[in-house]
Amino acid sequence: MATSSDIRNGLCIKYNNDIYKIVEFLHVKPGKGPAFVRTKLKSVTNGKVIDNTFSAGHKIEDVRVETHKFQFLYNDGDFYHFMNEVDYSQIRLVEAALDKPELMKEGEVVTVIINTEDNAPLSVELPASVILEVQSTEPGVKGNTATNATKPAIMETGAEVNVPLFINEGDKIKIETEKGTYKERVKE
């Protein structure tokens, strides 16, 4: 059993007969009244995100988890297939268990969180950033770079990311996976 002071990003807890992963949290200590923790919880079974407030010292039931490195193999429409890098066993997950599936390309190594009680995969964490190639975007206009203007670009995985005007088709860019935003252009 944990308490509200143990809440951190990525913690998996049992709440309302389901398993949730904490996506965001904020400890609040108002001038008057007791402290509390405001959280954003994501269900690992259906992907639904809810907001909840826990009072200070509230008991929460945490779920014991292990992390393993898996390689993303392919997506067949309904399921995403992964292979364990150690024993080559394969698992498949529904899209709801993934945070940003549109940023994953085949061969990407991800961290899979597994429940130790029943060895069921709970969620997938992408690396902090991924490198993807720009498939299509409008050409930049010379001299139009004085502002922080951006344009939409379609990546090789089908994800749409806003990029600066100097990015062209075929460029490889680094994308921050947590927010799904452009970080920098990658030179080869």
Kindly summarize this structure in a few lines:
The protein is mainly beta. It folds into 3 domains: 2-62, SH3 type barrels, CATH 2.30.30.30; 65-125, OB fold (Dihydrolipoamide Acetyltransferase, E2P), CATH 2.40.50; 129-186, Nucleic acid-binding proteins (OB fold (Dihydrolipoamide Acetyltransferase, E2P)).
What does this structure look like?
- The protein has 188 residues and is mainly β.
- The chain has 3 domains: 2-62, SH3 type barrels, CATH 2.30.30; 65-125, OB fold (Dihydrolipoamide Acetyltransferase, E2P), CATH 2.40.50.140; 129-186, Nucleic acid-binding proteins (OB fold (Dihydrolipoamide Acetyltransferase, E2P), Beta Barrel).
- The protein has strands at 2-3, 12-15, 18-28, 36-43, 49-55, 59-62, 65-75, 79-84, 90-94, 109-115, 121-125, 129-137, 150-155, 160-164, 172-176, 181-186.
- Strands 1-6-2-3-4-5 form a 6-stranded antiparallel β-sheet, with no helix packed on it. It has a 5-stranded antiparallel β-sheet with strand order 9-8-7-10-11, with no helix packed on it.
- The model has no long low-confidence stretch (mean pLDDT 85).
- It comes from Patiriisocius marinus.
